[in-house]
Amino acid sequence: MTAATHSSLFPQVPESADAVLDGLDPEQREVATALHGPVCVLAGAGTGKTRAITHRIAYGVRAGILPPASVLAVTFTNRAAGEMRGRLRQLGAGGVQARTFHSAALRQLQYFWPKVVGGDVPRLLERKIQLVAESAARCRIRLDRNELRDVTSEIEWAKVTQTVPADYPAAVAKSLRDAPRDTSEISQIYAMYEQLKRDRAVIDFEDVLLLTVGILQDRQDIADQIRRQYQHFVVDEYQDVSPLQQRLLDLWLGDRESLCVVGDASQTIYSFTGATPDHLLNFRTRHPSAAVIKLVRDYRSTPQVVHLANGLLNQASGRAAEHRLELISQRDPGPDPAYLEYADEPAEAEGTASRIRDLIATGVPAGEIAVLYRINAQSEVYEQALADAGVPYQLRGAERFFERQEVREAGVALRGAARAGANDSLLDDAGDLPSQVRAVLSTKGWTTEPPAGSGAVRDRWESLAALVRLAEDFVRVKPEATLADLVAELDERAAAQHAPTVQGVTLASLHAAKGLEWDAVFLVGLTEGMMPITYAKTDEQVEEERRLLYVGVTRARLHLSLSWALSRSPGGRASRRPTRFLNGLRPGSLAPGARTPGGAATAERGGGRRKRRGPALCRVCGRTLTEAGEMKLMRCEDCPSDMDEGLYERLREWRSDQAKQLGQPAYCVFTDKTLMAIAEAVPGDEGELTMISGVGGRKLERFGADVLAICAGQEPSGTEEED
After folding, report:
1. Is the whole model's pTM more than 0.85, yes or no?
2. Tag placement on the chain: N or C end, fewer CB within 10 Å?
3. 550, 548, 560, 554: which is closest to 520 by C-alpha?
């Protein structure tokens, strides 16, 4: 899912420092060779920022300028830190510390705590939600499960913005933040939570940063010791630092300026956690001598995808927008983004699953496809649609690969087989390394064919199959490799958290997709109220929603689909509108501020069967239609109808029978307006039937034959039973 997927998994270590620079473009090379003084790298999506900064560190180490132990590279996720460690190892720069802020601070806290306080560091509270629940109960404040999660997030936000309980209400008002409960209640819960932690001698992840900051502020000798250890700092995703993280970074640096930061203000999407791009945007003010290098060559996405991404930012406003980067695609042209409008959410999910199945049939691996949505609650309908279509999928945010039980068990089995060698009867008929791995993993549930359906059994198989594919890749690069060599590689990857790709379509929220990429991306549910989300009220909140969509668009390498549904459920009122962020960008839509009579959108309908260009016009009088019901009939309500009344009644009787057998309301089969449109058009084949609004792919498959038979004056073949 990352750029590393498309390069060799086991590249040769460069022979020299200069060889580390091979393959870098001029701007990346400028980053890699800027080893002194403050450096600010403004890197757009897909421009190879991780490549540039890892080669910078590796070049400095290999050239003897940066002692490995003196470098601390900081990023925001364990996955990103693991990927950075893996890349540095491949470049011959082992020994460099690449950690998250929390991991680096915790390591320092554990080392210095006995000297500063005495004894062991308090126990780390890995899940604070239970203690928050107890705190609320002690304050006699009832919270449901959703409120509990929200209040927990509020406490985290308060701590990273260095806000104490008493100041929380004022801080919320000042930041225009929407609190999930009365701010005085949250302040009480927050204070009780802090008290319970003190009583039980536990700390949370935010305390790790706060306590480290406190030690470095109070103990000059310890601050000096850390500064002697770490002379050079690199911070990735700098647009996401919180005030607390910036304070810790300042204390690590002291009065030095050996700092390189990398970020993109247009990808600031975590302000709700306390992240702010201000530190990136103010870097030149804080460090007047800083070198500023821009990376704008996009190696990830086609010109068509990049054009849409640039268009989104061109309509943006605010301070981050003033520093936007105009990307320049370095790839060959590809297909235009698809804009798809569906009648309802189930039809959108079904159409998406169908298009994904078609992509897989053309050779796009399932693991190179993602469905991205605004909130996690949207995933269920896509899980069901993909399962119904027989398409494997995985939910982003699941347990880490090497921490899964089946992977741990497989590692034990492979390690045992490697020790036994020729004495293991499992390996008697296995001539090469991949065959040996298959033989060992067959005892753990791996089979040549995946199990049917989805669920835990399929998830287990996918994990084991990923290990088999890794063995096949490994032996292609190292033909003489043994099972022991592979086990050693797996151990290194586990330490670096460098997991092989599990093959399956990824379902993820837009926030969870940050930092990832796929060959094909489906952005779904793009309606007003969801994108921007309904609770984005201020201009800055709306602009962050635009940036979130920008992040989603720039995850796609080649294929990009953007879709929305006009109603939530079948037969519902078609009152939704596609997101304003696509105005002037999708075909037939008007740029912000433009006006036209009717204002009907142009979009592909029902998975690509129909296009409506320009405003919908009455087929009788030619007037522009604005009501959903009129547009379904393609005529004004009061214009004369040429409907076949007898056909309409036969369709109604058939619909009534269908609804009874399915146990659903009649409108779930077809609405009255759709039946009227069918009776007026009298379609003769599937192509004509699908031209009628309300007849999507799912309903065509289930009811199309019956409807066409009735229109032809024949008896329907019968009712399809529910699965």
Report:
1. no
2. C
3. 560
